[in-house]
Each structure stands twice: as structure tokens, then as C-alpha cells.
Amino acid sequence: MAGGDLRVTGARLLDGRVVDVEVVDGAIASVVDAGSAPSGDVGSAPSGDVGSAPSGDTTRTDGRAVVDAGGRLVTRSFVDGHLHLEKAFTLERVGDEALAAYTAGDMGSASQAIELASAVKRDYDRSWLVPNIRRALREAIRHGTLTIQAFVDVDTTAQLEGLQAVLQVRDELADVLDVQVVAFPQDGVVRDDGAAALVEEALHLGADVVGGIPWIEFSDRDAQRHVDWACDLAVTTGRRVAMLTDDAGDPSLRTTEMLATAMIDRGLQGRGVACHARAVGTYAVPSQLRLARLARTAGLAFVSDPQTGPVHLPVQRFLDEGVDVALGQDDVEDAYYPFGRSNLLEVAFLAAHSLGMLADADQRTLIELVTTRAARVLGADDRGIAPGAPADLVVHGHERLVDVLRVHAAPQAVVSRGRVVATTSTTSQFHQVPAPVVDA
Q: Are 319 and 74 in contact (CB under 8 A)?
């Protein structure tokens, strides 16, 4: 489907400017001070009803869509660099045992939790996976999350059932959001004989990224073999590589370093992502700094999910060292986390507390960690609201960023490729409550 044409008026940007944004063929054509753009047509409006939003009417004028932001905050749409998509809404099928093991104490039982959680994969069937995946992605669209890196288990238990379900729904929604599928050997490739071949088959079927989880192997030697295999495959297939590294509170884990070094050795700079890297939070500061500088050299980016476990990457330290970092949802009601709704504002709100990022400047960083900086982590367009950038926008319900984060509500309008794809309206009425007194 071709991109749409529309105008977003009265859009407040993160720098405080209020602007009008013109969109042509799904891309931002101009960003000018509010009220200064000519009123002529920008093209034909997309078909179908686009509804309305309390932040200002979404209307049609002279054959085009016009979204009135009414001075409220407008940002780039959200980017989720780490989501286990086919596992969404499976917690009831697997029970709480894995959840308890994964989140307890210093996460010393994380490996055991993964083994417990694998039971659900024995029952994978597209008849129930597809509806769950559709539900999860509709929630993502409603919350303005239009770019997703989805990890899908590909191993000798799951086989390719989950992957084929995700690919089916990805194709159904390809006109609305971008889902980058990671072929993810959750149970390892050395300890799970046959998983490597399944990953290669998954790439042939349409997966986009080579996945890995080297820390799950039984020895450092096998973890290194895992990293080498994945990076070699990324080179030969021309793909990016994304791994879950060091996902436990164990300072002896060093697979993040293995990944960075392997990327440098193979010329993969800028083509890798490490998710979690929780053990890095237990390293001494000099070791954290050394790893951050190695990662910067390798162009290894990170996605941290502090809301899903009690140990996390030292995000601010890595940002200070010039390393690209994003925040991710990780899980939606599965064996590792009972909540989640692909609401990246909610993820940022929770991270503000766990990372101690509360000041004004921190809030600006948080919103970037789920928008422009997150796009950079995935190699996507990170220009935000600027001429030439994709018109993937969200109109929030408040003017101030602090209020947007505090409320973390679904955006009042979501624009994908120049077309309004979701609107949300929330109203409250007070009964028998005195009206506020206005001083004379």
C-alpha cells in the first residue's frame, strides 16, 4: 500500500517548538512553524475513516487528512528492539514456576527458568499462536510501536512452528508496521544439536536476523563456538546478528565481550545487538568501562529491559561512553514477565525508576531510548521528525514530556507511513465532586 498524504498541525516537538508537519507519499515533506504553511493541497487523502482524537480533530480538508495535535507533544513512533513475539500471552499455558526462577534474587536461576519455560514449545501450534501474535501486534499499533525486533524460538523443540506463525502475521500487517524477525536458538546450538540447521532454514524462509544466546551453553568454550557460528552465518548471509548475552546476575559471564570481539574480527561493525547483558551490571566499574569501549569500537548496540528482571545493564554509563542503547519490552504475559502490552512509554516510565533517570534531561533521554536512539540500535531511520524521514508519528495527549511519561497512555493518534492507523479516546466524568475553585 502506498504511503499517505496528510498534515499534522500544532505539533509540539521535544525541543518545545510548535510546528506543522506536511507529509507526502508517506514521508515528511516539511516541518515549519505552526500556521506558516500555505493551505494548499498536499495530495489525496488515504481511503477509509480516520476517526478523531481528543488532542484535536482528525479531519479531512480539501481531500487530505489533517490531524490537529492542538499543541500537544508529537514524537517519532516507538521502536521495540527486543520482543519475544510468539510467546506473548502464554503464561497461563506454562505456569509461574519459570517466572519465579527467572526473577528471584540476583537471577542466579535464570538458566533453570529457561529450561522450565521451554515446556510450552512442545505444544506450539499455529491455530493458537497466530491469534496471540495478532493480538500482541494490534496492541503494539495501538500504543504507537511500529518497529519491532521480534525474537522467535527456532530449536529442536519449537521447530519452525512459531516462526511460521510470526511470518504469517508479519506479512498481514506489513503495510502498517515493520517486524524484523530474529531466528533465535533459545536452547543453544552446541547443547541443542540440530538448532543451527533450523536457524539456517528459518533465514531461508524469511527471517531477517541471525539470533543467538551463547551464555546458555554449558562452558565458555561452547559459548565461544556459539558466537563464532552466529557471526560467521551473519557474514555469509549478509544479515545482522542479535543475541541475548549474559542474562543472569553472574559476574563471570563474558559472552557480550565475545560477541563484540567476534564482530570486529569479521568486519561486522555496526551490525550487532546485545540484549539484556545483565551480568555487566555486576562487573566492577573498570570492567564495565573496558567493555563499553570495546562495544563502541565494534559498533555493538544494546537493548536493556530493566522491568523484566532485578539486574540490568548500566545504561547511563554505556550512554556516557558513546554506546548506542535502547529500551525494550522483552515479554508480554509469558513465562518471564506477567505484564507488558508493547507500550514503550510504560517501559520508559518503569526504567526511570529502576535506572534512577528522573530529572528533566533524563526524561528526554528516556523518550529517545524508545524512539530515535532505539531506531539507531536496529539500523532503522533515526531522523525523527525531519524532512525526508518516514511519517511514522504519534500524537500524545499532553504538552509536557513529564506528563506523557507519567500517564504513559496510548497515543491519541498513531500515524504509520502517512496514514492514521489508530486513535484512542479516554474521558472521565466526575459525579457529586465539587468543581475546582478558581481564585478571583
A: no
- Of residues 369 and 113, which shows the higher confidence score? 369
Beta bridge partners of 18: 12
The DSSP result for 364-401, as a single string, is HHHHHHTTHHHHHHTT-----SSTTSB--EEE-S-SSH
pLDDT single digits (tens) 186-200? 999 999 999 999 999
How much is the pLDDT for 51?
Answer: 35
Please give the residue that has the higher pLDDT: either 406 or 106. 406
Answer CATH for 78-357 from 3.40.50.300, 3.20.20.140, 3.30.1490.20, 3.40.50.720: 3.20.20.140
Q: Quickly list DSSP for 116-162.
A: HHGGGGGG--HHHHHHHHHHHHHHHHHTTEEEEEEEEE-BTTTBTHH
In degrees rounded to 5, what are phi and psi of residue 313? -60, 140
Give Cα 238 to chain centroid, integer Å.
Answer: 23
Is the Cβ–Cβ distance between 397 and 55 less than 8 Å?
yes
Cβ-contact 8, 31 below 8 angstroms: no
Q: Which fold has domain 6-76+384-423?
A: Urease, subunit C; domain 1 (2.30.40)
Domains of the chain: which residue ranges? 6-76+384-423, 78-357
Cα torsion 148, 239, 336, 171 to 10°: value is 40
Closest CA to 42 of 70, 66, 15, 69: 66
Q: What is the pLDDT of residue 122?
A: 94
- Residues forming a β-bridge with 430: none
Q: How far apart are CA 119 and CA 384, in angstroms?
A: 41
Q: Where are the beta strands (DSSP E) in 277-424?
A: 300-304, 325-327, 393-395, 413-416, 419-423
Cα 422 to Cα 26: distance, rounded to the nearest angstrom = 16
**Which cell numbers in the block locate residue 375?**
531506531
> Alpha-carbon distance 75 to 269, whole Å?
29
Assessment of whether the complete model's pTM goes beyond 0.90: yes
Q: What confidence tens digit (pLDDT) does each residue in 359-369 have? A: 999 999 999 99
CA-closest candidate to residue 313, choices 331, 299, 328, 298: 328
Compute the average pLDDT of residues 252-277: 98
pLDDT score of 61 more than 70: no
